Amino acid sequence: MDTGRQLPLPEPGYYEPLSDRGGERAAVMYSLIVSAKMNDIDPQAWLAHVLANIADTPVTQLNELLPWNWRPPPRQILEAA
Hints:
Number of helices: 3
Order of helices and strands: HHH
Mean pLDDT: 79
């Protein structure tokens, strides 16, 4: 789904003072946010849910938190209707 809206890109040189590891983390987060949008998921709702639940999620179920597997909790489904 292309809504025509893009995430703002940082100014040139924005990542220069950051470490390589920081740049890799930023790229992963950007990728996950775009993946959420491509799966018609509100990135803010998805990220809030993941951050609230990741510590209690068993390692074997972490894949359920990825944007392409995630489903909003029932309460959010009702609010969207």
